[in-house]
Amino acid sequence: MQASSFFRDGAVLLCDGVSLADVARAEGTPVYVYSAAAIERAYASLDAAFAGYPHRLHYALKANSTLAIARLLRRLGSGVDANSIGEIEIALRAGFVPDDIVFTGVGKRPDEIERAVVLGVHAINAESAGEIDRIAEHTRAHGVRARVALRINPDVDAGSHPYMTTGLSNSKFGVPVERALMLCREIARNEALQLAGLHVHIGSQILTVEPLKRAAEALVRVACELRNEGVQVEHVDMGGGLSIAYDGGAGMSTGEYAGALLSIVAPTGFKLLLEPGRVIVAPAGVLLTRVVDIKSDARGARLAVVDAGMTELLRPALYGAYHRIEPLLHRPGSEDRYEIVGPLCEAGDTFGEPRSMPPIEVGDVLAIRDAGGYGAVMASNYNRRPFAPEVLVEGGRWRTIRRRQTIDELLALEE
Ligand code: LLP
Q1: Which sequence positions are flagged as catalytic?
Q2: For a pocket test of ligand 1, which of 64, 127, 204 has the largest count of ligand atoms closer than 8 A to its C-beta?
Q3: Of all helices (H) and strands (E), which one includes residue 101?
Q4: What pLDDT sits at residue 3?
Q5: What is the pLDDT of residues 139-188, one digit of tens each?
Q6: Residues 6 or more apart from 239 whose CB is under 8 A from it?
Q7: Ligand 1 neighbour 323 (Cβ under 6 A)
Q8: What's the confidence (pLDDT) of residue 2?
Q9: pLDDT at 1 over 60
Q10: Which residues of 12-45 are buried (b: 16+ CB within 10 A; e: fewer)?
């Protein structure tokens, strides 16, 4: 397991040596803080696990697409998986070239397809027969050829939260395996298109390698059958899905993950693409939030109301997701149980079951762990709450990579 960038020095929590209390004081709360070193380590660990086999990591921008984070991933040699025109444009502004981009998405609009076709991205991961036709229309209109990968739906249960399970036969993603061969043949025959590969993504936060192996087997079976027919397939794209241990435990190792995928893909020789998101950025970030009230409910349960809620970190409210929470400053005294709740006018705006922690007081700052992925990107302005700032710790210093939104900016689009 990789060393964490967040550790205690006596009573205070640091990020790569930087005092998180200093950041909270200077930036105010809520604020996201990311460790560049942790992102670098996670990227290097995953990349190294596949070393010796032809592969490329296409970081899934949806996990965290703040420009400075995207630029950091580019410096590390990553490609990207973009899920919208917005993510494509951000990738370009971060310095990625079209060949670095795979474009996924279950509902691509005509303008999004056109942009991807004109740019000439590495692959458009096509989701249906109709979409293949639409890609070909745009391609002909512009006199270019588009590289297309077909997303298959292998009907494999990722065993993850139902909202993060995308490879079941009744889910909206991809095409059934039985239709994949025929559609790939059509892509290969179509002069406007080039069959770049096959794609699968069965879900996110997948706890065991078994479903990933079954999906890989399904994908490889189709790819090999095509090759046997003389249809060229360049790559197999296994999507993302690698889980992290939100309880701070060991979790699935990159070695175990790579071993499982390579045991199936390596004998074929197909180039392997991966679209990791969470594993690269989630453990590298915390959300700092200040306690604004402490009270007891009628049963005597202690509630700590904090200044971050589902508008900053939606995961607990949306999925019942668990995130560790700890005070920056460990006050002496015996632990107490607190339910940590957000400030929004929603009963679901809570960080879950009560947890034991050292005594806390109004004004104290808490760190919500593993918030670097699917945190800031899923924020909203509900209750007219401005977006929180984001800070990057790099080389022993911190800087604001996205400042707090102002009320004027919040209103800038309105009449
Ligand atoms: N590739 C595709 C096509 C995807 O849809 C996703 C994530 C990824 C790659 C990256 O998966 P990862 O390595 O991060 O598991 N909002 C949820 C997660 C939704 C993931 C959606 N797709 C959360 O907060 O946990």
Answers
A1: 345
A2: 204
A3: strand 101-103
A4: 64
A5: 999 999 999 999 999 988 888 888 888 888 888 989 999 999 999 999 99
A6: 199, 200, 201, 202, 274, 275
A7: no
A8: 43
A9: no
A10: ebbbbebebbebbeebebbbbbbbbbbbbbbbeb
Contacts 24+ apart (CB under 8 A), 333-341: 333/358, 333/359, 334/359, 335/359, 336/302, 336/360, 337/301, 337/302, 338/294, 338/302, 338/303, 338/304, 339/301, 339/302, 339/303, 339/304, 340/304, 340/306, 340/366, 341/303, 341/304, 341/305, 341/306, 341/309
Cα of 244 vs centre of ligand 1, distance in Å, is: 12
Q: How far is the CA of 166 from the centre of ligand 1 (A)?
A: 10
DSSP letter at 62 equals G
Atom of ligand 1 nearest to the CA of 206: 15
Spell out the residues 6+ positions from residue 348 whose beta carbon is closer than 8 angstroms to its own.
Answer: 310, 317
How does pLDDT run across 390-405, given as a tens digit for each residue? 999 999 999 999 999 9
pLDDT for residue 250: 86
The reported pTM is 0.97
Q: What are phi and psi of 62, to 5 degrees?
A: -60, -20
The closest residue, in CA terms, to atom 24 on ligand 1 is 374
How far, rounded to the nearest angstrom, does the alpha carbon of residue 142 sit from its chain's CA centroid? 33
Handedness of CA 310, 312, 318, 319 (dihedral sign): negative
